[in-house]
């Protein structure tokens, strides 16, 4: 039995309230000292006493009537205090806001789980302690990013719940809900990669561009890096390393998509070949990196495209439906062999909607045929990227990377014809 379980709940809540009020007071003092100016209200002792006051009023009146009256009184006092300081030229609302938040610690400690109280305090401390980082992020925040986030929330929170989980047509064996869910999951992974590249690694190097770009789209990353390698000379081997890393991350992204969308059996069966291709690609990338030109420039030179355009989502959904219908007719007419030929051709387009359509649909082929189609399409997509790398770079230093991409196609075929039988 933990020591905290032996204490009366009211005593535990009081200790936590006083402790957290004191810690926030210390952080507020540090914030004031770092700002090098008098922010007025909010010393360590004042904030601690304010937290205890909120606790006492919430304990005396479980209906929170006294607490509400105290909140009004504290709010009036803080308003008068702020008005007086504003007349003196001080316009910061932060001390008043922190005081009101600290006053609310007591009821949380008495009524809510400890994890919620801790989360509440952690957010306050982070907002106080990470001022330089928040300022840098605010300065780097691009115009329109909030609108983009709203688009994603509309897609995920408004459109998805109202879509019926009903098959679209007799020859399209996926539902409206499955199509849009796939759009949201793919967009979310791409969006996280975009945010990481744009805000957390703004001065990203070539290798990081390959890693993060592979989570966004390994094909797009290869095109960007291939253009970058044109005319660079021997340092193109560093870019070739990044191209391989982008493809390695493609396998990780595909496996995560399969698992997130609930296809656990397929994810388990593909774990071995994907892991082997991922690790081998990482090993080859490491060998190329060791032999790369030591003075290579390590900047990407091109910003990532924004993944959350509505037109992109509609195009992905249309491709999802198209590939689902096409796979239905091919399987019905030509069976598993026809599906393998189709998967090879699709590899030279966008493979994500094809793979997700295969997994969501109901086709009269076995699980092994679906897994083979996924491996073949991802392998032929690597052939496309090898062509992009050579054609855009026109640099011999990228040839080893292109050769490895072509070899991954052969390894995928070998596993299909010998490992899945």
Task: List the helices and strands in order.
Answer: HHHHHHHHHEEHHHHHHHH
- Radius of gyration in whole Å, from Cα? 28 Å
Major sheet, described briefly? 2 strands, antiparallel
In percent terms, what proportion of residues is strand?
under 5%
Are there runs of 5+ residues with pLDDT below 50, and where? Answer: 294-301
Distance between the termini: 54 Å
**Biggest sheet, spatial arrangement of strands:** 1-2
Count of alpha and pi helical runs: 17
Helical residue percent band: over 70%
Number of strands: 2
Number of domains: 2
Shape summary: elongated
In round numbers, the mean pLDDT is 80
Alpha-beta content class:
mainly alpha
Walk me through what this model shows.
- The structure is a single chain.
- The chain has 421 residues and is mainly α.
- The chain folds into two domains: 3-137, no CATH class; 144-419, no CATH class.
- The protein is 78% helix and 2% strand.
- Strands 1-2 form a two-stranded antiparallel ribbon.
- Helix 15 packs antiparallel against helix 16 and helix 16 (367-393) packs antiparallel against helix 17.
- Residues 294-301 have low confidence and may be disordered.
């Amino acid at each position: 039995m933990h020591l905290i379980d032996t204490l009366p709940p009211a005593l535990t809540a009081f200790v936590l309230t006083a402790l957290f009020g004191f810690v926030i007071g210390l952080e507020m003092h540090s914030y004031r000292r770092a700002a090098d100016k008098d922010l007025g209200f909010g010393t360590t002792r004042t904030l601690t006493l304010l937290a205890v006051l909120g606790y006492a009023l919430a304990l005396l009146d479980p209906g929170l009537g006294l607490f509400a009256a105290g909140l009004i009184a504290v709010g009036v006092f803080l308003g008068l205090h702020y008005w007086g300081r504003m007349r003196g030229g001080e316009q910061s609302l932060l001390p008043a806001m922190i005081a009101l938040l600290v006053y609310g610690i007591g009821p949380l400690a008495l009524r809510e789980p400890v994890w919620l109280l801790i989360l509440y305090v952690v957010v306050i401390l982070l907002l106080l302690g990470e001022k330089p980082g928040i300022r840098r992020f605010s300065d780097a925040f691009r115009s329109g990013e909030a609108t983009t986030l709203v688009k994603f929330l509309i897609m995920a929170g408004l459109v998805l719940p109202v879509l019926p989980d009903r098959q679209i047509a007799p020859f399209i064996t996926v539902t409206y809900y499955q199509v849009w869910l796939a759009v949201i999951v793919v967009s979310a992974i791409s969006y996280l990669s975009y945010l990481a590249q744009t805000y957390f690694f703004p001065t990203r190097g070539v290798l990081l561009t390959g890693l993060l770009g592979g989570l966004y789209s390994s094909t797009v990353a290869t095109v960007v890096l291939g253009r970058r390698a044109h005319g660079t000379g021997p340092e193109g081997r560093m870019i070739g390393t990044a191209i391989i890393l982008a493809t390695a991350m493609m396998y990780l992204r595909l496996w995560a998509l399969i698992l997130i969308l609930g296809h656990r059996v397929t994810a388990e069966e593909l774990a071995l070949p994907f892991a082997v291709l991922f690790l081998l690609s990482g090993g080859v990338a490491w060998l190329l990196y060791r032999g790369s030109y030591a003075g290579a420039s390590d900047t990407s030179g091109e910003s990532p495209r924004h993944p959350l355009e509505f037109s992109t989502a509609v195009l992905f959904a249309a491709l999802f439906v198209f590939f689902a219908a096409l796979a239905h007719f091919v399987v019905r007419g030509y069976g598993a062999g026809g599906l393998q030929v189709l998967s090879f051709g699709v590899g030279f387009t966008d493979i994500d909607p094809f793979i997700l359509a295969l997994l969501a649909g109901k086709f009269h082929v076995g699980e092994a045929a679906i897994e083979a189609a996924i491996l073949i399409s991802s392998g032929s997509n690597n052939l496309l990227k090898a062509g992009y790398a050579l054609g855009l770079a026109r640099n011999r230093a990228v040839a080893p990377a292109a050769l490895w991409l072509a070899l991954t196609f052969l390894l995928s075929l070998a596993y299909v014809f010998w490992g899945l039988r």
